[in-house]
Amino acid sequence: MTATTIVSAQTVAPRPSAARRRGRRNGPLIALLLLPSVVLIAVFIVAPAFYGLYLSFTNTQLTGFAARDPQFIGVDNYVYLLTNADFLGSLGRTGQFVLYSAIIGQTVLGMVAAILLSRPWLRGKGLFGAAVLMPMIVPEVVASLTWASVLSNNSNGTLNQLTGLFGSGTTDWLQVVPLFSIIIVNIWRGVAFAMIMFQAALEDVPVELIEAARIDGATALQVFRHVTLPLIRGPVFLYLLLTTISTVGVFGLVYFLTQGGPGGETRLAAIYIYERALQFSQIGIGSAASMILLVIVLVLGLVYVRLSKVQV
């Protein structure tokens, strides 16, 4: 091989792009900027999660002999929970709560609100949007107290006053339909977040595709089903993932309204974990219940991610 060929080969050989060189040069700076976030996540999320996993294999308690000298008991806590009717019942109620309040209620109403806000003929969009967003900015305690007044069992309760206009007597709504009541309250709290995500997704749908479908004779429902919905599939499943995670962990709203009653009808998994870990001081069982709930959420998350990638 001649010297001219060697020089030509060296000249033709690709050189690192400018962006790649800048990335290598700025790598230490990027790592330094990310370090505080990584430390915070490790200290406040990763470490507590592993510690909770360790506690789930022990008989740790806040009182008694186990508080002084906790023992490793293996999977006994998991066996107890998976054969315990109260815990399995709380999982079932949590599933109903998530399904009806988050996956169906918030998603459907949030989509309807987003579609209405995207319509040019709608008047008073600012007032309508503010009304939907209001529950999102109200603190959880304030929202709970407000709904406790609405659902009050005396004649001064807002809902009883409305039903009284039609000749109905006073009803203790949190005793008669407790699970349905907290589902309605949670829908009210979460519609705003759904509306924001879906409205942002709808703005990215090409208008040309919608107009072409309408020219072909498609109805509004057909346009939404066959054109709009497939194009916003990713944001929809992302919202379902986020709302499922947040709804599974709902505690304050339910505890302030019903404390898991009456008769355990609103004892969701989060309420059950609180009772076991803090009221009955059974930290090991509470930690095991949390790990089971975490596994269920992770499985649902994987399903959502898989469905969001389905080609249509």
Task: Give the tags.
312 residues; globular; MetI-like fold; 16 helices
List the topology elements.
Blueprint: H1 3-12, H2 18-55, H3 65-68, H4 76-82, H5 85-117, H6 125-137, H7 140-150, H8 158-164, H9 173-176, H10 178-203, H11 207-215, H12 220-231, H13 233-248, H14 252-257, H15 269-279, H16 283-308
Structure description:
This protein is mainly α. The protein has a single domain, classed as MetI-like (MetI-like fold, Orthogonal Bundle), CATH 1.10.3720. It contains 16 helices and no strands. It has helices spanning 3-12, 18-55, 65-68, 76-82, 85-117, 125-137, 140-150, 158-164, 173-176, 178-203, 207-215, 220-231, 233-248, 252-257, 269-279, 283-308. The longest helix is centred in the N-terminal third of the chain and has 38 residues, at 18-55. The N and C termini lie far apart (55 Å).
